[in-house]
Amino acid sequence: MAEFMKAMVLRDGGGGVELRDVPIPEPGPGQVRIKVNACGVCRTDLHVVDGDLSKPLPNVIPGHEVVGTVDALGPGGATAHGLVIGDRVGVPWLGHTCGQCDYCRDHRENLCDAPGFTGYTLNGGYAEYCVADAQYVFPLPGGYDDPHAAPLLCAGLIGYRSWAMVRDAKVLGLYGFGAAAHIIAQVAIAKGVEIHAFTSPGDIQAQDFARDLGAAWAGGSDEAPVKPLDAAIIFAPVGALVPAALRAVRKGGTVVCAGIHMSDIPSFPYSILWEERVVRSVANLTRADGDEFMALAAEVPIETHVRPYRLARAEQALADLREGRLTGAAVLIP
Q1: Structural contact between residues 330 and 306, judged by C-beta atoms closer than 8 angstroms
Q2: Prediction pTM value
């Protein structure tokens, strides 16, 4: 095997990524090495590249929607986690936890005090190879080729954890109809939920896309829904949507903020929070979330919409995401 691989690396000081030849990583104890076949481009990657998330690993390789094949096991063997060479697997955002803090011991490892994040504090999948903690590698369901499986690893997982918080909602609003919303909308609709999709004002293409997937209503985020919502999930990183969503949900309703980063939430009158409305956030995922969602993805099944890019065109993929030129999800192909 060659000693070097192609990877897109965060430039010194941020401000984009560049193609470099870097050493092929070797898996450590409890790790596996994965030959990357596809890696989704997530809005969180933008937050890393654009500096919204501070203190990334120096010259980090972004990417946390990694699909590939196990090609090496670290010392001690990763077979204790059921992985063998040749397995097709996925690597998500939460890439490592300490296993010792109160949260880890309480099976809430998504809130670990000393976590590692793929593509941010750990090297990710914008490369030909990556290494991953075997405990945070998920077998993937059949029925999805590599590019179409990639969005399941973050867009799908964070959408699932968000939806699980409001699973009893019969009328659900989704603010921001991109990669995550287009996946969880299909899951919710399959379970009998009525979906109302809110897009950037005037984004007719995204609204048509939502209707094509089965949304009962689609319109701009500056519009009121045609009926009160039981709950809303905000995927767009726009703090001003929180008051808008609170006004849209009925008494006792919940607004879930699904992003890892959001602009400041403006002040709002207490009256739109009153009557036992709830605002809450989502942080990362648990291994149970991953197992449950992958089983659900095999059951529904979910049709992911992707636009492939060659690895060397990662900057173009990020720019298209940043400027709202994507319907569905961008996926890099090494």
Answers
A1: yes
A2: 0.88
